[in-house]
Amino acid sequence: MEKRLIYNSGHIYDLQNANDRDDVNFYRSIVKRYGGPVLELACGTGVLSIPIAKDGYDVTGLDLSNDMLLQARNKAEGVSNLQFLNGNMSDFSIGKKFKTIFAAFNSVCHLHSYHEIKGMINCVKKHLSNDGIFVFDCFIPDFNILSRDKNKRYPVFEGNGLSITETNEYDPIEQVNHIKWYHEYGNQKWIEDLDMRMFYPQETQNYLISNGMTIIEKYGNHQFGEFGRQNRLQIYICKKS
Ligand SMILES: C[S@@+](CC[C@H](N)C(=O)[O-])C[C@H]1O[C@@H](n2cnc3c(N)ncnc32)[C@H](O)[C@@H]1O
């Protein structure tokens, strides 16, 4: 089957991910609370950046994929307080300070090495104003998923004419879940590799603290639910120490 790079099409990404996102209101209320200017790392097609800009905040979105940014720019036509930049969230320099910086929707799982994670935290610190905050969310690793039979296909998404199923194989040494996404759209079929670094809550918090951040709030879902085993997410709000 044809192989395609992950995030090679903002259009396909949006068919799967642009609607019914409960994190939109979460990040809008975070920005309302802490203020702009706002920087979204790994902004993709602007699912979060665009509504926040439409709320009246000055927003910059940064992403590694030009294909995702193309879709973001098309959707944001006419929104003047929003700019999209191509760049790497673990090594960027924008020459501006922000009150709110965030990385949503498991985007940090694309940073596989400690070097990249540390790079992101250092870049965030350089771009945060003194009273600024950094927020990110990712899944708490789920052993039911990580230990699945690597030969079995599981459903991921069905809708808008797009169907995605997956296989996965977890490497416990790298802490990377090697996922294959099998896409079907019209008469096209293709595979994309999605390699997601797993972040364990204790190590994640240690990474933040040992790199000069103070965690001021933690949540377990996008409804500001408790950080704990009953919820699927780890969400950290941090400031510079
Ligand atoms: C799961 S998507 C999230 C997109 C968007 N934040 C959203 O909520 O829909 C992950 C995004 O991370 C981007 N990405 C992956 N590695 C990156 C890196 N090192 N620096 C910047 N962006 C990166 C991808 O291009 C993709 O757009």
Question: What does it look like?
Answer:
The protein is an alpha/beta fold. The chain folds into two domains: 2-140 and 200-240, Vaccinia Virus protein VP39 (Rossmann fold), CATH 3.40.50.150; 143-196, N-terminal domain of TfIIb (Single Sheet), CATH 2.20.25. It is 27% helix and 35% strand. It contains seven helices and twelve strands. It has helices at residues 10-17, 23-34, 49-54, 66-75, 114-127, 143-146, 201-210, and strands at 2-3, 38-41, 59-63, 82-86, 98-103, 128-139, 154-159, 162-171, 176-185, 188-197, 213-219, 233-240. The strands form two sheets. The protein has a seven-stranded mixed sheet, with helices on both faces. The chain has a five-stranded mixed sheet with strand order 1-10-9-8-7, with helices on one face. The N and C termini lie far apart (49 Å). The protein binds S-adenosylmethionine (SAM).
